[in-house]
Amino acid sequence: MQTLNLLAAGEELNPLIPHPVEIVLSLVVFGLLFLAVKKFVVPNFEKTFSERTSAIEGGLAAAETKQAEADAKLAELEKQLADARHEAARIREEAREQGAAIVSEMRDQAQAESTRIVDHGKAQIEAERQQAVTSLRAEVGTLATALAGRIVGESLDDDDRSNRVVERFLADLETMESARSGGTSTNGDGAR
Amino acid sequence: MSLIGTLVVRAEGFTPPGPGDFNLPPIGGGTGTFEWLGQSHYIGVTKPMVQLVLAAILVFGFFYLAAKRREMVPGRMQYVAEEAYGFVRNSMGRDIIGSADFMRFVPYLFALFFFLLVNNLMASVPLIQFPTFSRSGMVYSLAVLSWVIYNGVGIKKHGLVGYLKLQSVPSGVGGPILLLLVPLEFMSNILVRPFTLALRLFANMFAGHLLLILFALGGEYILLHMAIQFAPVGILAWVLFIAVAFLEILIQFLQAYVFVLLNAMYIQGAVADEH
């Protein structure tokens, strides 16, 4: 630096006194820079800023719309879901009622049926018993009559005799019985 | 500094740095001079002139390339440029001048700030290491320009009389005190401002660079040409050189900022309705 200090030697420079070329040069260079910046740089920045602002604002507005739509849809779906739940509960309740009704009806029917069957059986048994009683009564009557006839036909004052009569009767009865079965078989043979 | 240096050091053969160190000869030699305002000046292109043009090209080139792409999602370069632009636009333009009509001053403030900043920072760029605005002529034109601009927009808005009244007569003050206040306000708002603007920037750049030269050359002189027991002082001088160099970077930014900030405030005061 000191070797460059050519003019300083001998005279003291006053740094406040300007170099005229520098005044003009500074003004011109800065003026050109200003014009270039004003024309080519600042508009680009401003345009970018405003575009970005509008893009962000547009994005925000779109997001808001989407959000509102989504909210509405969600509310609708929730309402539908609640309706469906309600409906399902109603149907279930109905089904339960119907089921109970069906069960009780079936029970009544079964009760009635069983009562009917029991009644029917009872009536049948009674009828058969009646029939048996009737036929038994008739048979007993016949047998009694036959026995009585035998007994009356013999002397009834002798015990031994009466015993014999009874035994004979019983034996007859047995022979009658066997004869009936034998007779039928001989009859069957004879017929053949 | 120069006086003390003359008294104390020159006796031992050390030539202290002075204003002459800022009067660089033209590039490529040439020692022709001309007289102007009682002082002789070099004829030719000097280093600060080249720096001035280079700074303008750098500022425009960077911001033009960065702003050209105009992407919604900015890349690194565009982001940096947008932040830088937004810093001047918002913190110095909009916040001070007001959102109503700051936009028409943004190109001026923006170009001015980065023009000043790059030129100032050149004092700290290795191999360049010369503050462009330590040349007073460079600063005068910018100060005069800002004076023309703020007075111009003021007169355009309020008319000459209305503007002078706005700048000279403080509102809410009446009576004989005005006799005192009006000349003061006129002085401070109209006359003194370009001088303070210019001198603040010029003197800071000039003094900072002078200080650095002093530490560098003084340390060198102590280490090379003085007895060995003074060596620690020479080392200390170089350590201080580094420290002051970092301080200078801060000052370079700050002076650019202050210059543009004051410009914005002057414009705001000039276009204000009342203040």
Q: Averaging pLDDT over every residue of chain B, what do you get?
A: 90
- Strand content range of chain A: under 5%
Secondary-structure element order of chain A, N to C: HH
State the secondary-structure class of chain B.
Answer: mainly alpha
Given helix and strand content, the structural type of chain A is mainly alpha
Shape of chain B: globular
Number of helices of chain B: 8
Tally of alpha and pi helices of chain A: 2
Pfam families (chain B): ATP-synt_A
Transmembrane segments (chain B): 49-67, 105-125, 137-155, 176-195, 201-223, 235-258
Protein name (chain B): ATP synthase subunit a
Subcellular location (chain B): Cell membrane; Membrane
Fold blueprint:
The complex is a heterodimer of chains A (192) and B (275).
Chain A: H1 20-153, H2 159-191
Chain B: H1 2-9, E1 33-36, E2 39-42, H2 47-68, H3 76-97, H4 106-121, H5 136-168, H6 177-191, H7 193-225, H8 231-271
Helix pairs in contact in B: 2-3, 2-4, 3-4, 3-8, 4-8, 5-6, 5-7, 5-8, 7-8
GO molecular function, one term (chain B): proton-transporting ATP synthase activity, rotational mechanism
InterPro entries (chain B): ATP_synth_F0_asu (IPR000568), ATP_synth_F0_asu_AS (IPR023011), ATP_synth_F0_asu_bact/mt (IPR045083), F0_ATP_A_sf (IPR035908)
Protein name (chain B): ATP synthase subunit a
